[in-house]
Amino acid sequence: QPAGVHRARGQGVDARREHPRTERVVPLTGLGDLRGIHVLAVDDGEGALTLLRVVLESAGAEATTVGAPLTALERIETVRPQVLVVDLGMPEMDGFELISLVRASKDPYVRDLPAAALTAFARSEDRTKALRSGFEMHLAKPVDPGELVASVATLVRRARSTR
Questions:
Q1: pLDDT (tens digit per residue) in 53-73
Q2: Most confident segment among 21-25, 54-58, 155-159
Q3: Which one of 21, 77, 120, 159 counts the least CB within 10 Å of its CB?
Q4: What is the pTM of this model?
Q5: What is the rounded CA–CA span in Å between residue 133 and residue 61?
Q6: Of 39, 85, 81, nearest to 63 (Cα)?
Q7: What number of helices (H) and strands (E) belong to the chain?
Q8: Would you tell me how many other CB atoms lie within 10 Å of the CB of residue 78?
Q9: According to DSSP H, which parts of the chain are helical?
């Protein structure tokens, strides 16, 4: 075999030429402390749910993520989260419909659950609509990790001060 020529076998030379399939993960630090807080996040996008889980868990929260609003309604009853984070643009039932069902619940715990709307629509009229629909906060996508953590902490503080 001539000098400089390599025969590729299994994990040989070709393996080193492959492009990485994932981005380098940068540790999330300095986000704030959400230990002892359980957040239920609802989004039909798998990538968005992964990001929400990573950010919330990096801040110490317990995160339950679901991809469908009807599943979220069931999980609220069983996991009893302290905060709900909901994507507004979902196909089978949007976030506005979900929050209206939450606010109409016979269970006071569910009905009073603090909630943040998560949406790609960040115009002031979108924010106003979300707040009038029963959300306490409106977060624009892509959500900043620090803003998400601070918003969850604020919602929990507000809820504790009113109970």
A1: 999 999 999 999 999 999 999
A2: 54-58
A3: 21
A4: 0.81
A5: 26
A6: 39
A7: 7, 5
A8: 8
A9: 13-17, 46-58, 69-79, 95-103, 108-111, 124-132, 145-162
